[in-house]
Structures are given as structure tokens and as C-alpha cells.
Amino acid sequence: MPVGAPDASSLVQLAVVTLVAAVIQGTVGFGFTLLAVSFFLLIIQSAEAVPLLIVINLAISLSLVGKLWRHVDRALLLRLLTGALLGFPLGLIVFSVVNLNQMRILVAATILVFVTLTVILGTAGSRGPVGEARFRTLPAVGIGTLAGGLTTALGMPGPPLMLYLTAAGSGKDATRATSLTFFTVAFGAA
């Protein structure tokens, strides 16, 4: 799609991708951008797909986060957001220097790395440490930095955050609530 007004076919394609990805996000708590970013880049043919996805993600996250607030691990969220503040400028630098083809490669590589890690962690079973030790400050800040950088570079903070929370043995409610709250703040800041 050339820069300018999108044609009707492109709008329909974007709407279908958005609907499917939003249903996934609403069902499992993450995954919107993981699914949508590749299609948006193909349909829009511009890096403008990333800011558009950030705005859509913010709206989705805002609609879901209120119901989950009571399950948020606030201490962990603070550590993650501290890291995100470090990652946001790094991601903006990446976003500003890559072209569309490089962005597509970054998206594909990010998805492949995190899918591979998910498979490895899934087959290894849940071996996360027990208790508060699993959320030590330095790893949480590091994951927050990576997620923050991925938010502003590619609009997709979910993969490292979800891997971390899953590997650490965070419960389903805490994982969903903490990740969605992180997404809301990260997308709002981005």
C-alpha cells in the first residue's frame, strides 16, 4: 500500500488482522502484536505500522487491565517498568535507523527467537525458582529493558515479558495482570 490513503482492500485486510489478533489478546492476555505486526508491515508497506499498532495495543490493553488490577505483582511491575524506561530510548534509536526491510527481518528474528525459547522452556518443564527469589531486581530490570526497547522499536514488548513470567513460575492471574498492566504503561509511554 503506497503512502497516503489506504484502499478499501487494505482497510479490510487490516480490520480482519486486527480482529483476529484482538481476540487472541483478549483470550490469552498477550499476542496481539506478535500476530499483527508482520501482517501490518506487509499491508501498509511502511514502518508507520509500528506506531499504529502501539495505539491499537494501548486501546486493547486499557480495555482489559481494569478488571485485573488486583492480581498485579506491584513490586515486580515496578522493576519491569524501571527497566522499560531504560529500553524505550534504545528502541527509538533502532526504530529511527532501520528501513522497512530491516524492520521485517527484526520482527521475524524476534518472533523466531522467542518461539524457539518458548519451545525449549516448554519441553524443559517449569523449573522456575520458588518464592520471591524468582523476581530478583536485576533480571526483572533487564527483562523490562528488553521489553521497553522492543516496544518502541517494533511495538512488541510481550515475548520477553511472557517468557520471563512463565519461566519464573508466576501464576496465571498474576502473569496476565502484570503483563497487561506493563503493556498499558509501555504502550502509553511509547
Task: Describe this protein's structure.
With 190 residues, the chain is mainly α. Helix content is 77%, strand content 0%. The protein contains eight helices and no strands. The protein has helices at residues 8-28, 32-44, 49-65, 74-97, 100-124, 137-154, 158-167, 172-189. The two termini are 25 Å apart. Residues 127-133 have low confidence and may be disordered.
Key descriptive features of the protein:
about 190 residues, mainly alpha, 8 helices
Number of helices: 8
Radius of gyration: 16 Å
Helix content: over 70%
Distance between the termini: 25 Å
Show unreliable segments.
127-133
| pLDDT averaged over residues | 85
Order of SSEs: HHHHHHHH
**Principal-axis shape:** globular
Number of DSSP E strands: 0
Sheet/helix structural class: mainly alpha
Quaternary structure? single chain
Describe the main β-sheet briefly: none
Q: Approximately how much beta-strand content do the residues carry?
A: under 5%
Could you give a quick summary of the protein structure above?
The protein has about 190 residues and is mainly alpha-helical. The protein is built from eight helices and no strands. α2 packs antiparallel against α5 (about 100-125).
